Amino acid sequence: MEQLSFNQRQRVAAAIKEIRHGYSGDGKHGTIGTQVLNFLDGHGAEVRALTRSPEKAHFPAGVCAVKGDLSDIDSVRTALDGVSTLFLLAPNAPDELTQAMLTFNAARDAGVKGIVYLSVFKGEAYADVPHFASKMTVERMIDAYDLSVTILRPAYFIQNDMRQKDALLDGGVYGMPVGAKGISMVDVRDIGEAAVKELLRREQARARLPREIYELVGQMPDRGKTRYAVERRSRPSNPIWRR
């Protein structure tokens, strides 16, 4: 990644809910929002992070914590004032669809030129899963209005397996129903890095960029019969981006 020189400094807003999308039992890796902020650090961007509790936030130096919530559209509009690029992570909540759509509308009204939106891998295949269906509807909105957005579709997070630690170590049972087909997992750090690459690419673009979609998956599917060394699992050396 190239660094922005000081005369190129622009504002990048990371719209972040305080919700554990990526789970880490030891607290070393944090959420996707945290990873985005960490990877933005050092690129010369002015960053705002929307959070419900600025006084409790532990962001990298230079990040401006803005009090607000995606369910409070007035606070979103305030946070977006003067912002040129946005990372949008909507929470898995009953009103996720409403929050995401209102934020997109607010971003469009504010003149935000580029957005990176966190969706989900193969969301179209699971119409009965509410937070999958919500993300697919948001993608339809992005397509219908021809918005300048990068859509990231990550697969199951590796960090979620920390929830399986006790069952694995104590009973030798892996509780996720992946079966023999398996699932290609992705590390939240790779998601954060991918998001920042797209944020900076859209920020630095001289012309409007078209909508793009990337599926973020691991190289090989992990199957239910695989023996997991939970405490030793490391980040894949070559994560895959698929258009």
User: What proportion of the residues form beta strands (DSSP E)?
Assistant: 15-25%
What is the typical, i.e. mean, pLDDT? 79
Proportion of helical residues: 25-40%
- End-to-end distance: 20 Å
Q: Which CATH C-level class is it?
A: Alpha Beta
Main β sheet profile: 8 strands, mixed
Strand adjacency order, main sheet: 3-2-1-4-5-6-7-8
State the secondary-structure class: alpha/beta
CATH architecture: 3-Layer(aba) Sandwich
Number of domains as seen in the coordinates:
1
Treating each run of at least 4 consecutive H or I residues as one helix, how many helices?
A: 6
Return Rg in Å. 18 Å
Kindly report the name of the CATH homologous superfamily. NAD(P)-binding Rossmann-like Domain
**Low-pLDDT sequence parts:** 1-10, 15-30, 227-237
Number of strands: 8
Write down the CATH topology: Rossmann fold
Broad shape: globular
Order of helices and strands: EHEEHEHEHEHHEE
